[in-house]
Amino acid sequence: MDEFWWVWIAAGLGLAILEVIVPGFLFAGFAVGAVITGALVWVGMPSTEWIVDSLVLSLLMFAVISVAAWLVMRAVLGVRQGQMKRIDHDINED
């Protein structure tokens, strides 16, 4: 399982590219989660060896890191106010 660290990194880069293409703030947390999971699998830190050996635990680690990254980015970047523009007057009505 530890030889597939590059798959996590590639998935993270693919999700980051998808974040740029798709409007909204949807894939950034998943991209960060995939890259961090790939880095942990690649480094194979002694405290994470049990995660590296199990796909289910790697996916769980990915999910937890992704949600945490999304929440942190949402708190730091904030919600944009006034994203929707409401038009009350049509120029053709005059």
Topology (SSEs and partners):
Blueprint (H helix, E strand, L loop, with lengths): L4 H17 L6 H16 L5 H4 L2 H23 L17
Note down, in words, how this protein is organized.
- The structure is a single chain.
- The protein has 94 residues and is mainly α.
- Helices cover 64% and strands 0% of the residues.
- It has 4 helices and no strands.
- It has helices at residues 5-21, 28-43, 49-52, 55-77.
- The protein is elongated.
- 22% of the residues are buried.
Choose one word for the global shape.
elongated
State the share of residues found in helices, binned by percent: 55-70%
Report strand %: under 5%
Supply Rg: 19 Å
Number of domains: 1
Kindly report the average pLDDT value. Answer: 80
Largest sheet: none
Straight-line distance between termini: 68 Å
Helix and strand content put the structural class at mainly alpha
Number of strands: 0
Element-by-element helix/strand order: HHHH
* Number of helical regions: 4
Low-confidence stretches: none
